[in-house]
Amino acid sequence: MKAMMDRQEFEAALRQIGAERYHHLHPFQKLLQDGQLTKVQVQAWALNRYYYQSQIPVKDASILARLQTTALRRGWRQRIIDHDGQEASDGQPAQRGGIEKWIALADGVGLDRDYVESGEGILPATRFAVDAYVHFVREKSLLEAIASSLTELFSPTVIGIRSKGMLAHYDFISQETLAYFDKRPVQAKRDSDFALAYCLDNARRPEDQRAVMDALRFKCEVLWAQLDALYFSYVEPAMTPPDAWRPGIGMKADAP
Question: Where in the numbering of this chain does the Thiaminase-2/PQQC domain appear (predicted)?
């Protein structure tokens, strides 16, 4: 790409990246939403995905520190509140954050809270991919860091399909277990609108547009790599690395 794309062409190119590379196409994702995984495999997904969830406010705080206007900081700060939650104050009720809701999801599938929060048993490839994402956001330009969040453009529809499929196919999954996803489509739409507008406004040269597209591709690879790790460790062929979680480890005391 040498010529500058207009705003519509640029947005279309970004959306095409999602259509081709977003992890809704991954075999593990399809097995998950179609009810083709065992409870053990769903537990492995819940545990490993927690590490990703736990690091989202870390990367968002890195971006927040680099934003130069009050309006931008206010807009981005809400992401951290969404994931970390907020204590009750001034007559406002406490807000349970996404991390707490994900712990509840892990609890709902039979995993022990302390074990989940400890980070033990996380697949090496999961840790490597998530840490690479955090480092990317810290080290790249602000435009690239924000662009890496554009995968949220594609998540609302996928969340609905995943939640509906899991509720339909797994008798150990309830609506309460999946409470994390209740607000995510609305939050993701709000956040992706913010990030997309920023990228469309601030990618003012062809090389800027290339950098934004490359950042989005990178983030798609981060999400894809996490599902690769789960598939090859817990599905087929099952090659679980040393020290990674195995069935029976880190279970709730009352888990069946």
Answer: 12-228
For each of the domains in the chain, give its residue range(s) and CATH number, in order of start. 13-234 (1.20.910.10)
Counting other chains too, the contacts that 163-168 makes at CB distance below 8 Å and 24 or more residues apart are 164/33, 165/32, 165/33, 165/34, 165/35, 166/32, 166/33, 166/35, 168/35
**Single pTM value for the model:** 0.94
User: Can you give the three-state secondary structure of the chain, one letter per residue?
Assistant: CCCCCCHHHHHHHHHHHHHHHCHHHCHHHHHHHCCCCCHHHHHHHHHHHHHHHHHHHHHHHHHHCCCCCHHHHHHHHHHHHHHHCECCECCECCECCHHHHHHHHHHHCCECHHHHHHCCCCCHHHHHHHHHHHHHHHHCCHHHHHHHHHHHHCHHHHHHHHHHHHHHHCCCCCCCCCHHHCCHHHHHHHHHHHHHHHHHHHCCCHHHHHHHHHHHHHHHHHHHHHHHHHHHHHCCCCCCCCCCCCCCCCECCCCC
Rg (CA), the chain: 19
- At 200-248, the pLDDT tens digits run 999 999 999 999 999 999 999 999 999 999 999 999 888 999 999 999 9
Question: Which residues, 6+ apart, have CB-to-CB distance to 14 below 8 Å?
Answer: 150, 153, 196, 199, 212, 213, 216
Structure tokens at 196: 């997309």
Report the 10 Å Cβ neighbour count for 67: 17
Distance CA 199, CA 162 (A): 28
Say if CB 54 and CB 68 are below 8 A apart: no
CA 47 to chain centre: 13
